[in-house]
User: Fold these one by one.
Assistant:
Number 1:
Amino acid sequence: MNLHRFCYLLMALAIAGSLYFPHHLLMWLLIINILTLLIYGGDKLAACQGWRRVPELTLLTFGFVGGWPGAICGQQLFRHKTQKQPFKTWFWLSVLLNLAVIAGVYWWLYQRY
């Protein structure tokens, strides 16, 4: 199994797992941020050992779906992906896009009337 497929399998399990708790969104954010932090740590270890790496698109996807606080923690804790361009630019664009989606959904659900 490819590494990125394993990461997406973990994401699917996180979605399924978060549905078993009363506060689905809160549990989703907790689980996805922990997974994102662990994936950044695993990718840093792979980089140091010369192993197969997690694709940047996968790291960006985990950040986009709500794991960006975990990604920021992972970047600082493991000193990973903090200087690399254009990843850094794409990462911050994905954070802004995530926040825009959250604001749009909030407005659509609560502010339309």
Number 2:
Amino acid sequence: MVLAVMSKLRSFRPMTTVQLQTSFLRPVPKGAEPVRITARVLRLGKTLAFGDIRMQLADGALAAQATTTYALL
């Protein structure tokens, strides 16, 4: 998620995690490939960044999902 925020900012800016909530929906089977991780910035403000991270199996099934809030320092 930090890399996604940096991409939106077009540079590095110090930040710290304010909130992180993860839901594990199903196990990732041994040898499962590929596993796709997608990080998306939902909102980028002056002091806070909100994001969504998803882990999907090759068949498209969602294995885990997280929401994040970062304070931009």
Number 3:
Amino acid sequence: MVRSMKPLAPVCFALALLAGAAHAQPQPGWKPARAAEIVSPAAPGGSVDVMSRAIKRFAEENRLIDVPFNVVYKTGASGSIALEYMAQNAGRGEFVFASSHTFLTIRETGDSKLDYRDLTPVGLLFKEFHVIAVKPDGPVADGRALIDKLRKDPSSVSFGFFGNPGNHLHLGAAIPLKAAGVDIRKLTTVQYRSGPEALTAVMGGHLDAALVTLSVAQALADAGKIKVITQTSPTRRGGYLAAVPTWKELGVNVEYATAQGVLGAKGMTAEQVGYWEGVLAKLSQDAEWKKLLARSYWEPAYMTAAEMKAYYDAEHSKLKAILAELGLAK
């Protein structure tokens, strides 16, 4: 008796499909094949540096990168040196840039011919608020005294901060002080290589006030070496900030937050962006990273590359208008 072979046809067809599907599986995406760098425009110690080292450590500990991965410091010239370095490495997916709000306005203030638009968005990680820190026994006692003093003489208090006039740190004081009736175009400002350097100058009596983020001031405030007199958050934060009034409590209806994340070199491919975006997405869900956010008074704000671009473009338009209004645009 001859048996029919027809029932085998569907089986053979299914096996052929499975074999084809195996060959059609997507190949592993791009990964750095040579030494990678995260370029920091600020000296060690500030929040940009802390973020950079956290990204490096996470990528290495979780074996997300198979090549040497270093934080490279390109400080000075208000961040333009770091931007020029990134421009020299356009198209190289191994190079990423630790970004802050500074790079939304650095071209507008005339400190660089380049800004965030000359880089590739990769992802945002967190937002942070800002404080004004003074010497405990210095010439400025508190936030109200600061406002009164500056209304009478806008140049009577020296403010130090990392970066260029008109950057996110400067605006963290300039925006609320303008709303308080101070002519901020006459403020005395001094540039430093990092927030910790500005705080050191305050402690030494060489500077009246430092404009820094919450995390940068924390250790010295806890030790009683500096006094924080204002915070830009909508309500008082906990810890060392529990006794620090917000601008709103000082009668100034302003709150202010900036954001930090990662940009890539110009001309990165979608695969290269996808790799770094994946690293940041995983980092944003990491338990140790979340502890760092809490310790540093950073507000979680993970955004994809596309979301970061939309956010940066919106912030750029807003800050550009503010700079023009304040007379800081060049």
Number 4:
Amino acid sequence: MATSFSFEEQKLFPKPRLSFRQLWNMSFGFFGIQFGFALQNANVSRIFQTLGAELDKISILWIAAPVTGLLVQPIIGYLSDRTWHPYWGRRRPFFFTGAILASIALFLMPNSSVLWMAAMVLWVMDASINISMEPFRAFVGDKLPASQRTTGFAFQTFFIGLGAVIASLLPFIFHNVFNVSNTASAGKIPPSVKYSFYIGAVVFLAAVMWTVFTTKEFPPEDVKKWEEEKLKNKGLFKGIVEITKGIGTMPKTMLQLAVVQFFTWLAFFSMWIYTTAGVAQNAYGTTDTTSSAFQDAGDWVGVMFMVYNGISALAAFLLPLLAARIGRSFTHLICLIIGGIGLISIFFVKDHHFLLLPMVLVGFAWASTLTMPYAILAGALPPNKMGFYMGVFNFFIVIPQIVAAAILGFFVNRVFHNQSIYALVVGGSSMIVAGLMNLIVREKGDETPKEIVEEVMVSEQTPPSYI
């Protein structure tokens, strides 16, 4: 494929550095996206159990989310690479469409009356969130020079953390501040959870639309030639061939990171599925989903998730400074090992108040997971396929989640005798392995430590009017 019309950085006309305001605007949509993901991660297992799901079946019900990502993200990445509109640009049509669909799904989820309906809505919701989210990763590669990419991903991580902090706390706030009930009759979703999802739907839509309408995109260098190339590769069969060919020619750095991602996301998926059940059993002494103690445990898990997301938001801008001194891959190694220790330590904590301490450690791992792999990867990708390869990179997020969904239920039921807290120990061990796997990652040397440090100090240079 010809590359003369790509968004490739050229020596004569390099991409301008963006101001703080411009970085803020282009990243703000992630606040809404993570608002939706945080509500999903902290409450869907709770909803499934409330609607009658057995403990060892929860992981299978969750499989909709990773399977959706496996299918949607490379396709959306491929399509967004081949999209251009004079007003809407390249990635923003997908931000817009996904936000509308995800907001509708967020309204529907807490109104699910039966288990199969909740599982179907999870499928739709995750697909819709992915439509918005995947192009955001490529957005950084499209718009930012190499010296600002880690900062660009750090801005995204900040908004991911901020959105998740607020969203994770909402059920707890509704119950403890506004006296909204967090219990309901058997098979009914508590009002505190319902109202949280309604707010999430509004915030998701508003935040993504902020980015859509405040941020412009670079046009192809030669629109006419770009259109000709797009027509040449038009058609479903050609698209499948192109996607398959691209998967088979992944950059070496991407394959090295794939191993790290596999063990990392197996760990996080274990945490999202089993923290509510594990904390309810281990710290609250209950497995009765209709009891006040179980719903209190669900609220407290929201607080725990708020802590790790809050730490990740604060850590996001410290990580580039650390990476400047010891390298991105070694920074990621340290953060993942710290997070794995935190996840394992949940097993030993019986007083729920002290469960916030392990989540501080998990927060560093989460911040690094949302920043370092993408910053490493962006420098190794061809610019004209940035969206596609960011979508393919999602394979190494969703495949471990599918593996986790397939095997964790068996282990919890048969090996751990329905003591779901052990699933978190497995997750923590996997995260430590992921950290050690960074030793095989070789970063492409496209930035000096000095340039990485400069990413933190965002230039106030006024860019061209089309930005």
